UniProtKB/TrEMBL annotation, chain A:
NCBIfam families documented for this protein: hypE (TIGR02124)
Ranges of residues in domain PurM-like C-terminal: 167-319
Protein name: Hydrogenase expression/formation protein HypE
SUPFAM superfamilies in the cross-refs: PurM C-terminal domain-like, PurM N-terminal domain-like
Source organism: Anaeromyxobacter dehalogenans (strain 2CP-C)
Family: Belongs to the HypE family.
Domain of life: Bacteria
Taxonomic placement: Bacteria, Pseudomonadati, Myxococcota, Myxococcia, Myxococcales
InterPro entries associated with the record: HypE, PurM-like_C_dom, PurM-like_C_sf, PurM-like_N, PurM-like_N_sf
UniProt xrefs under Pfam families: AIRS, AIRS_C
GO BP: protein maturation
Domain PurM-like N-terminal: 44-156
UniProtKB/TrEMBL annotation, chain B:
Species, as recorded: Anaeromyxobacter dehalogenans (strain 2CP-C)
One biological process term in Gene Ontology: protein maturation
Keyword 4Fe-4S: no
An example molecular function term from Gene Ontology annotations: 4 iron, 4 sulfur cluster binding
Domain of life: Bacteria
Family: Belongs to the HypD family.
Keyword annotations: Iron, Metal-binding
Annotated InterPro entries: Hyd_form_HypD, HypD_1, HypD_2_sf
Name by which UniProt lists this protein: Hydrogenase formation HypD protein
Length: 341, 378
């Protein structure tokens, strides 16, 4: 791939794939300084800084989505869930505070703003995460697209889980059906008029992750939520950082029929599509059953499944066993575009 | 297509049946007892093979090669130049999406569009006709690409008295001619062919009989589900094992011996085969479809003076950059033999035609992560 980022930033640089990683490594990593714990250079879901015998976990995320309201959720629910989930992916399932910065485009309907904020309030309550401070800006028509939300979350944890902890023999669990959010948004955005019930999975999953950590303890070794870049993006990161190969058993992936059908129709693999209420969890094989049982006992984890395993061969590679044969699972690259013919 | 239709298709995806077919394939290869190379000539077959990882279950010694099966890839640079020249002289040029980024010798239609040329992506030729009807003051040209399958649609429109401001720039190609080129090549040693099911729906499977008899290589017509392809390989290796250069059809749910006769009649009322240059390959006798003299008034080449003076040899230039698309399309190399593959040549900035089209082998391999030997992994 390009060794240098091109002269202008394109949409692909924000899509959670290879182009975005390259941009971050080339430009933003210069901001990194050494910390006692997990800092910027780890490119994890958030930072973990040692404070006494505990960890202060921090994460921040900006949220833009088209359309702002979509089947199953809205930008407000995403802004809370995304940040709460990023904290949870570091092992910090009890947020102590959230911040919210809002940038509003001139002309944005007040009723829509109130609806978004109500959704944020409800989602924060669901997650047990209090908003503690915020900021509001309004920009001129055309200077920002509708509404941009930034949320930051802070939590304390006794133990942190990175996304780099896999070793050969570990199993990977996904907490439920994949692709629902991205496919629902894409179907709405492109007005695909598909039959069936395509709904986003957006939800705070800190409670679900807490149950997995309680059951698996130290044997939960890696976690990541498959947002932009989808499950494929997460697996590539986990394989590269853990120095392992990963073999995915494609037939065992939980995928809703509607998502599968939409994917076939528009030529987009559900593995590449964003999820907003799921986690990929790496577990030592001996504890996989316990973790799976704990996940399945939770309402958001009923379809949790072991779907992949780490191997010593081909470090950094992700191999898809399709049930018919095997192929490499490509790393997501740029913006996902439905095929036009 | 409704979801129900899609779910009906999904029942073809049965891994247990796939394992049984892979076992039968292994049995045939054991009986043959030497290395065998077979070829398919269809981008949609390559899509299914790459997506389902079928090469990882092929028995050792069986090589499955993609031939010149991508109609966009084999469209020659000067053919693109003609369309670019028309767009730049104020004609509205309509074509399928993949043709937009295909490089001409100097520029692509996308470049022409950026330079102010009138270029429009359409989903079908009928949409181009509608544009002509909506803009009677303009000349609308449909750049007609694709193999027999799409040529039939072009033929139907050509024979249905389209509006007077509508014409056709045909770069249609004819698949059986390409198989002849491969069979005649001294470098390839293809012992059997998997033929594209959708083209055969039109032409019928019997069309391949003279080819099989003359070249001694059996041909099996196949559909596009993973099981279709595995079944075709089982049948093909069986014919090779028994030394029977025959044609078989493992896609009987869609393909008949004689094919779609009304479609064939339309095709040959509208087109005749002529020798044409295929990008990166050669002049292919009978490889291009040209509108018949009776439809000359619809032929954009006859209606307009298309000035493509100063065109260069695009394939030679791509080769100079290290592109091996020509060798890939002839089945002499795979994308992994190309130093540019996945590094300087990627879908966003393709060097050669095979990385441009979603039917091109490089693009397909790139999408599905390349195909290193995974037979022994995990």
């Amino acid at each position: 791939m390009d060794s240098k980022v091109q002269q202008k930033i394109g949409l692909k640089h924000g899509s959670g794939g290879r182009a975005m990683r390259q941009l971050i490594e080339d430009v933003f990593l210069s901001l990194a300084s050494p910390v006692d714990g997990i800092g910027l250079s780890a490119l994890d879901d958030g930072a973990a800084i040692r404070v006494g015998d505990r960890w202060l976990v921090i994460t921040t995320d900006s949220h833009v989505v088209h359309p702002i309201f979509f089947p199953g959720g809205d930008i407000g629910r995403i802004s809370v869930s995304g940040t709460v989930n990023d904290l949870a992916m570091m092992g910090a399932t009890e947020p102590v505070g959230l911040t919210c910065a809002v940038i509003i485009e001139e002309g944005f309907p007040r009723a829509d703003l109130e609806r978004v904020v109500a959704s944020m309030r409800e989602t924060a309550k669901e997650a047990g995460a209090p908003f503690v401070t915020g900021d509001t800006k309004v920009m001129g028509k055309g200077q920002v697209d509708g509404l941009v939300l930034n949320t930051t979350g802070v939590a304390l944890a006794d133990r942190v889980v990175s996304d780099a902890g896999l070793r050969a023999g570990d199993l990977l669990v996904v907490t439920g059906s994949i692709g629902d959010h991205g496919m629902a948004v894409m179907a709405r955005r492109h007005d695909l008029r598909l039959e069936g019930d395509l709904r986003s999975d957006v939800a705070p999953i800190n409670g679900l992750v807490r149950a997995a950590l309680a059951a698996g303890g130290e044997d939960v070794v890696a976690m990541k939520d498959p947002t932009r870049g989808g499950v494929a993006g997460v697996l590539h990161e986990m394989a590269a950082k853990g120095g392992v190969g990963i073999v995915v058993d494609e037939p065992s992936l939980p995928i809703n029929d509607e998502v599968r059908a939409a994917g076939e129709m528009i030529g987009i693999d559900p593995l590449l599509v964003a999820n907003e209420g799921k986690a990929v969890i790496g577990v030592r094989a001996r504890s996989a059953d316990k973790v799976l049982a704990a996940l399945r006992a939770h309402p958001l984890g009923a379809r949790a499944t072991v779907f992949a395993r780490a191997i010593a061969e081909r470090p950094g590679a992700v191999i898809l066993d399709t049930g018919f044969g095997k192929r490499m699972l490509a790393e997501p690259e740029g913006e996902l575009l439905p095929r036009i013919c | 297509m409704s979801n129900d239709d899609l779910f009906r298709q999904l029942k073809f995806r049965d891994p247990a049946r796939a394992r049984a077919l892979a076992e039968a394939l292994r049995h045939n290869m054991d009986a043959i007892g030497r290395e065998v190379s077979v070829m398919h000539v269809c981008g949609s077959h390559e899509q299914a093979i790459a997506r389902f990882g079928l090469r990882a279950v092929l028995p050792p010694g069986l090589e499955l090669i993609m031939g010149p099966g991508c109609p966009v890839c084999v469209t020659d640079g000067p053919e693109v130049d003609e369309a670019v020249a028309l767009a730049m002289q104020g004609v509205r040029v309509c074509t399928y999406g993949d043709m937009l980024r295909l490089p001409g010798t100097a520029r692509s239609l996308a470049d022409a569009q950026a330079d102010g040329g009138k270029v429009e992506v359409v989903y079908s030729i009928s949409q181009a006709v509608e544009l002509a009807q909506a803009h009677p003051e303009e000349q609308v040209v449909f750049l007609a690409s694709g193999f027999e399958t799409t040529a039939v649609a072009t033929a139907a429109v050509a024979l249905a008295s389209p509006p007077p401001n509508f014409s056709i720039l045909s770069v249609h190609k004819y698949v059986p001619a390409a198989m002849e080129i491969v069979a005649a090549s001294k470098e390839t040693h293809i012992e059997g062919y998997v033929a594209a099911g959708h083209a055969a729906i039109i032409t019928g499977w019997a069309i391949f009989e003279p080819f099989a008899a003359r070249t001694g290589a059996p041909v099996v017509v196949a559909g596009f589900e993973p099981l279709d392809i595995l079944a075709a390989l089982v049948k093909l290796t069986e014919l090779i094992r028994e030394g029977r250069p025959e044609v078989a059809n493992v896609y009987p749910r869609c393909v008949t011996k004689e094919g779609n006769l009304p479609a064939q009649r339309s095709l040959w009322r509208a087109f005749r085969t002529v020798t044409g240059r295929w990008r990166g390959i050669a002049d292919v006798p009978g490889g291009n479809l040209e509108l018949v003299p009776e439809l000359a008034a619809l032929d954009a080449r006859k209606r307009f003076r298309i000035d493509t003076a100063g065109v260069r040899d695009a394939a030679a230039e791509e080769e100079a950059k290290g592109c091996i698309c020509g060798r890939i399309m002839l089945g002499l190399a795979t994308p992994e033999h190309c130093a540019l593959f996945g590094t300087t040549c990627v879908p966003e900035s393709p060097v050669g035609a095979c990385m441009v089209s979603s039917e091109g082998q490089c693009r397909i391999w790139h999408t599905y992560g390349g195909v290193p030997d995974l037979r022994k992994v995990g």
